[in-house]
Every structure is written in structure tokens, then in C-alpha cells.
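FAQ

Q: What does a record look like?
A: Structure on top, sequence underneath. For example:
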């Protein structure tokens, strides 16, 4: 395990600023622009715990089983420029940092086989600060899987799946009921690897 404490001076943050204006049809609207600004400071503290073990005490062929788990908790505080020039706002979180992140992996390695199933989760995080509300990435969990078989010392066939559960990543403004962007980044690939 490991304890984390760090102070960041002039943390770079993304801020959405409102700009008054009119489109060509003269309808009154509020436009926004995105800028990278230096924050006044930020602090973070937390803990990271991990454990990896191969279960060699099990009878063959189960002695090829193993697992790897990792959990991170980060508590942050950041001070950033407000939309009003010269003003600062303090938040009880950090931009682009989830408060809780965990990874877990179950694997099997024996008889030329390597099989892995893994899950990674984050509790969501603030992507950008804005006068109309913060842009937030919703909590998500992704499952990945892979299988490999060594044909020879130099050739391995493999099949990998990324986000096999087809989890949808959602970015929203203020409320998850107002999504601004969604993506479903998943896929499979396979082939033959050559190792020298």
C-alpha cells in the first residue's frame, strides 16, 4: 500500500466561459468558449492498496490461477479562477481526477495458455469547470478479456476484447439528465504475434 499527499502549484484546469452574442438570425444566445487556465493551487491526499497473488498452492491444473486487485482513493481540493476576472473559487475536488478507482484482474497462466479477465472502475470526475455548470464524466466500469496460446517459442496466437460489456461513457453538464456526449468504445482484435 501507499499513502499519497501532494500540493500542486498552478494546476492547469479547463474552464468553460460564457460569451454574450448573437448568431446571424439575431436571436439572443449565450455562447461558450473553453480555455486552459492556471489555477491558484490544488492539494490531494489519498491511499492506494494493491495485492497480486498466483494461487500456486492449488492442485494442478488450477495452480495457474491468480489475481491482481488495486484500489485508489484520492481526496482533493482545488482553487481555480472564477468567470469574474480576479476572483477565485475553491472546490472540494480535483479536475480530471476520480475520487475512487479500482482495477481487478483474474488470470490463468499455464501450459502455454494465458487467459485474463479484468474490470476497471472509476467513480466519475469533473472534466471542466463552467459558469453554466461543471462538465462531468459519469462513473463507469469496463470489462476487458484476452486469451493467448504460445504455438512455439516465437509465435503466439491471441484474441482480445476491449470493453466487452459495451459500457457507455457519458459526459454531462450539471446533471446526468443533460448528457452532452456519449461514446461506446469497444472492440475485438486477434492475430499472431512474433517474438524474437
Amino acid at each position: 500500500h501507499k499513502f499519497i499527499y501532494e500540493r500542486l502549484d498552478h494546476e492547469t484546469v479547463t474552464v468553460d466561459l460564457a460569451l454574450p452574442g448573437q448568431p446571424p438570425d439575431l436571436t439572443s444566445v449565450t455562447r461558450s468558449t473553453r480555455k486552459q487556465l492556471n489555477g491558484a493551487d490544488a492539494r490531494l491526499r489519498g491511499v492506494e492498496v494493491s495485492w497480486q497473488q498466483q494461487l500456486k498452492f492449488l492442485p494442478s491444473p488450477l495452480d495457474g490461477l491468480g489475481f491482481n486487485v488495486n484500489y485508489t482513493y484520492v481526496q482533493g481540493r482545488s482553487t481555480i479562477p472564477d468567470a469574474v476576472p480576479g476572483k477565485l473559487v475553491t472546490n472540494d475536488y480535483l479536475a480530471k481526477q476520480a475520487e475512487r478507482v479500482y482495477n481487478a484482474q483474474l488470470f490463468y497462466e499455464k501450459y502455454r495458455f494465458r487467459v485474463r479477465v479484468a474490470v476497471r472502475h472509476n467513480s466519475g470526475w469533473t472534466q471542466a469547470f463552467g459558469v453554466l455548470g461543471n462538465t462531468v464524466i459519469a462513473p463507469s466500469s469496463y470489462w476487458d478479456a484476452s486469451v493467448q496460446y504460445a504455438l512455439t517459442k516465437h509465435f503466439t496466437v491471441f484474441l482480445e476484447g476491449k470493453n466487452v460489456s459495451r459500457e457507455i461513457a457519458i459526459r454531462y453538464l450539471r446533471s446526468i439528465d443533460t448528457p452532452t456526449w456519449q461514446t461506446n468504445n469497444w472492440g475485438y482484435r486477434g492475430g499472431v504475434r512474433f517474438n524474437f
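Q: Is there anything notable about this one?
A: Confidence is low (pLDDT under 50) at residues 22-33.
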